[in-house]
Amino acid sequence: MSGVPAVEVDGVSKNYGAVSALKPTSFAVPNGQYFVLLGPSGGGKTTTLRMIAGLIRPTTGRVRIGGRDVTDEPANRRDTAMVFQGFALFPHMTVEQNVAYGLELRRLPKDELRERTAAMLRLVGLTGYEGRRPSALSGGQQQRVQLARALVLQTSIVLLDEPLAALDATLRKDMCFELKHIQESVGTTFIHVTHNQEEAMTVADQIALIAAGTLVESGTPRAMYEHPKRRFTAEFIGENAVFSGPSSEGVLRVGGVALTVSCVEPASAISVAAENIAMHRQRPDLEQALPGTVVDVFYLGFTALLHVEVDGGPAVPVRLPSRELDVGIKAGERVWLSWDPGHARVHMA
Ligand SMILES: Nc1ncnc2c1ncn2[C@@H]1O[C@H](COP(=O)(O)OP(=O)(O)O)[C@@H](O)[C@H]1O
Ligand SMILES: [Mg+2]
After folding, report:
1. How far is the centre of ligand 2, averaged over its atoms, from the C-alpha of 155 (Å)?
2. Domain annotation covers residue 29
């Protein structure tokens, strides 16, 4: 049984008239995984999530939950619970009533209903708040009530659409850690939609990057960060210098410099993570150092971020330990960039 994915999206697409919100897309989410759909706004994440939930009908393809084809089944027969963006709580109900609501609809015996509601409020850290109304809660607390309201249903899948978008940055970070802990402790499959890269990296076992209605690439946060396959992934996740240019026979031209790279096809690109770029203040004794001009220097605590405009090439990010700023690097300065060839990644277009 454990080999059957919790969710399978199989060739699923969605058109709204002439607009293609999602092109035919397939992926599987293993049981108990924290799966994140990440990508820019308008890319098709919410559409995908809502088709899993049964709130939108796919134009093509099948959705399976626990191996069962549910494409033709309504939302309430799919063993999923949903946490929506914003705080969609019932304002006239107490915290306890909000959480118990779904169980009441299911006509659960009163004792069991109270027990499960109390246990869930304990899990999300809201014991003692049972009698409050949503208006008397902070944003973070309201978000926790929403989560409790979904988890109390004990469905095998919880779907979360931008669950932290309404929170400020600090709270969002704390709630990320909590979401991860809660998911690990209940072991339920979570599918979480976000446009926020850091949020995705923090909570995900697996990330699927979705943009312009297409699943670009998927993998663990570490694989996506360290070994992005697609150029778009390198542009969206982490901080990467991306070079493209006329290329042939293992050589890619950036300005006047010929970079030797492995298996370059026309229209391909290479990327190097900002922290893997070395910056020199004198021309180094290397064939493949790229000359450029520092345009920005940002002190960010432990590290500093610089933007360097490469001669005849793009402006690229460079990350340095902040102590390297002690020598007085300023905007306008001429520098040379280089990297260990093993750090350059070749991308398909
Ligand atoms: N009901 C709808 N009618 C027409 N177009 C829609 C509808 N819902 C979404 N879209 C379009 O589908 C695309 C994907 O939207 P969505 O799934 O909400 O993206 P995301 O959640 O990644 O921001 C967008 O271009 C959006 O405008
Ligand atoms: Mg959305």
Report:
1. 22
2. yes
